[in-house]
Each structure stands twice: as structure tokens, then as C-alpha cells.
């Protein structure tokens, strides 16, 4: 069924969409050429079309993507308030890389990463008490931020090895088998051997156990994840740091940590302020986050911060001119949107610490409500409960049924518009399939109650089947 036309003749007249043919006078607009006919899909159309027509066609196709707010698979923000939307529209033309042309946006970027450095307890500069000794930058998301964090680890290790006259042929990075795919890419693109520590039922996250079997003189660093993508659980950064301290005592190897705080770095400071995971731990050299996850900004924005300027080797940093002076730049991209940085600053001012606390707490309350309701259903066993980041996963209770699996439940929930993915866990638990919910700002308690009802109904339907659901064509893969 067509949606309400997003533009009206009045809107079009006010915005100068007057077209020569008079077609824009037609009402309903779906009868226009282009809407009543067809656009080619794989070549640029020969002629022009009215802006209202092109708008409506693109708008309607995007509508087929479904409702982003019901997408419980994504960590990425799907709601911002009307002031943020206005600011976004006002500043969509700014290119973040043009620091000389948009010096105020550049200054705001610096303010933002300094605020984050403080939030993550970076030490002051030794020669300037009260000012941060950290250095940071915005990125397009956590993936770029992790690449930059990883590159700095690699370059520091190379410098130290060369200075000692040692080989730099075989760098390796130690990380959990449950890392997000950006770390596999980092290792692949920059020729670093990934040393995956498998997760098991006993060690559900990387916790420092057996770390000495993976770390050696070629280890550029260890990645600790605050909010594992598969389940939302925190890796205990302090325990990983303590294991590395023991390794240093025994072997002399001084191995730094990069914290991939894609989600958790914007949750833990508010909801678990006493948890020590950040620059309070000396071993933590750098921290990254996705501003577009629990930073609450629309995609794509991320941040990465190094504890001190020495943790970011200067030969990775380029100089850009800025206000007639110079500004350090470390990035993979050149051009990228500046508006998101302004949106982040808007949120820091708008919400402050207390506002962030309230928003994150509301998401966590909904996650805990949902995990309790789902955990109480006989069909399921919880894997975790959403009290780290507001994300949790569950598995099918052993022996509950042989007629359906979690992918069937996922398909059934799609009928109601909910996207709740089911997927296998990584090594060594790849036989285990879990289902996960990511609670974000905008999933209200009321919506969550509807979801519980829909899950209850779906399970009742599946349990009542007389024969097993077919398994052919089931999609069990999910991109993390
Ligand atoms: C732990 C972790 N690291 C990195 C990423 C990549 O983040 P982005 O999508 O911002 O590039 C994700 C995304 O889900 C993640 O969960």
C-alpha cells in the first residue's frame, strides 16, 4: 500500500519544484511519469525527472527496509530528538577534513575527545596539571578507530624492536575469538597474525586465563572488549592487565592493551563508574568507541584516544593546516561528515553526565526486564542478563523441543516487524546457537512488553506444531 505522499503541491511550490510539464499538478502524485512507470535499475536514466517524483520514488524504496526502531539486531542509534535532526540538516554540508575552512567544527572535535579523555580517566599532562595529556581523534566509527589503535600498537612495537636490533617480521595481536570482524580485517590488512583465545563455557570472555600461552616477544598488544558483540558481556580489563603484569614480571615483556569499547565505553562511565577498565589501568594505551552506538549519535562517528602523546607514534601523524597554524591528523579516510561531530557535542551539552546516565539506565532497565521475562520462559536459558551493556543473549533450553530452533523463532518475529537475530557463537562454542537483543535509546518499556507478548505467542505457535519445521534454506550466519 502506498504511504502518504511525503510532498504536496504546496511544498513543491514553496521549494521551487515547478517542473516544465505541469506534471507536478497531478494529484495523486503516484500517477506521474516515473512513478506510474519504471526507472532503470542499473543505468542512470537518460532524462530528468521532477524532484518531487525522484524524492517519492527513493523515499518509498527506503520504506521497504522496514522500521529501524524495531531492529533489535543493531547497536547503532536509530533515534535522535528534533533539535538534533535540525542541527544535522543545518550542518550536513560540513566536511570534517576541511579543518582550515571549518575551524569551529575542528575546535569542537577537539573539545569532544578531551571530554572523553576525562570521562575515561586519562592522566593529566605531566607539565600542565589540569589539562589532559591524552591525544585523540574522531573517526567514521569503531572500525576505523580500532584500525588506528591497532596501527599505533604495531608501530610502537616496530620502533622498540628496531631500536633493540630485533626482527619486526612477525607481529601478532592477542584477542578473543569473539572479537568483532574489524579486528580480523585489521590483522588481514596490516599483516599481523591474529592469536585468538577461544571462548568456552568456563571462560565466556577473554579473562587473562592462559594468556601466557599466547603472548610472546612479537605481541604488539592485547585487545580487551568492553561489550562483546555476540553477547554484550564485558571482558574484565583489570584481570587481563593483571595477567600481563605477571607475564612482565616473569619475562620482561611489556604488552599494552587496546580497549575496544565500541559500546561499553559509553555505558560503563555512567552505569558502572566503579568498574576499573579505562586509563586508570596503566597498561591501557588506547580506547575506542562508536559514537553512533551508546554515544547516541546517528551513524557514522567513532572516537579513539591514546593515554599520552607518546602512545601514538609521531610518524603516523600528518600535519594539516588549521587557522593558519598546524593540526595533527591521524585517519584512514580523508573526507567525511562533520555534522556528526557537532551532533556529539550537542548531546554532551544537552544531556550532560546526568542525562547520559538517565538514558543508559532506562535502556538497561528495559534490557533487564526483557531478560527476566525471556529467562522465565521454559523454552530458554539465558546466556547473560543485560547488566553490563543493555544487550543479552539466550539459548534454547536443552531438551525443550526438536521441532524448531532459534532461527525459526527469529523468522516468526519478523512477521511482527521485530528483527532479533539468531547465530552460532564463535570458537570454541560454534555448536551453540544464541539469540540476542540490543536495547537502545527508543525501545520503551511499552514496546518491550509488546515484544515479550510476541515472543510468547511465537513460542506457543511453534510448540504447538505437529511436525518439525523445515531446516532447508535457513540463514544462520550473521555479520558481527
Ligand atoms: C566490539 C565492537 N567493536 C567494533 C565494532 C565496529 O563498530 P562500527 O560499526 O562502529 O565500525 C563493533 C560493532 O558492533 C563492536 O561491537
Topology readout:
Blueprint: H1 9-14, H2 51-63, H3 82-91, H4 103-119, E1 124-125, E2 128-132, E3 135-139, H5 142-163, E4 172-176, H6 181-189, E5 193-197, E6 219-225, H7 237-251, E7 257-260, H8 268-271, E8 284-290, E9 302-306, E10 318-322, E11 325-329, H9 339-375, E12 380-382, E13 391-396, H10 406-414, E14 422-424, E15 433-438, H11 445-463
Parallel strand pairs: 4-5, 4-6, 6-7, 7-8
Antiparallel strand pairs: 1-2, 3-9, 8-9, 10-11, 12-13, 13-15, 14-15
Notable traits:
single chain, alpha/beta, Aspartate Aminotransferase, domain 2, Aspartate Aminotransferase, domain 1, 3 domains, 7-stranded mixed β-sheet, 4-stranded antiparallel β-sheet, glutamate decarboxylase activity
Large-scale geometry: globular
Second-tier CATH architecture of the largest domain: 3-Layer(aba) Sandwich
Strand content: 15-25%
Major beta sheet summary:
7 strands, mixed
Considering the protein shown, what is the CATH homologous superfamily of the largest domain? Type I PLP-dependent aspartate aminotransferase-like (Major domain)
Q: What is the total number of structural domains?
A: 3
The neighbouring-strand order within the major sheet is 3-9-8-7-6-4-5
Helix content: 25-40%
Using the CA coordinates, give the radius of gyration.
Answer: 25 Å
First and last CA, distance: 34 Å
CATH class of the largest domain: Alpha Beta
Order of helices and strands: HHHHEEEHEHEEHEHEEEEHEEHEEH
Q: By helix and strand content, what is the structural category?
A: alpha/beta
State the total count of DSSP E strands.
15
CATH topology label of the largest domain: Aspartate Aminotransferase, domain 2
How many H/I helical runs? Answer: 11
Mean pLDDT level: 91
Note poorly predicted spans. Answer: 18-27
Which cofactor or ligand species appear?
Answer: pyridoxal-5'-phosphate
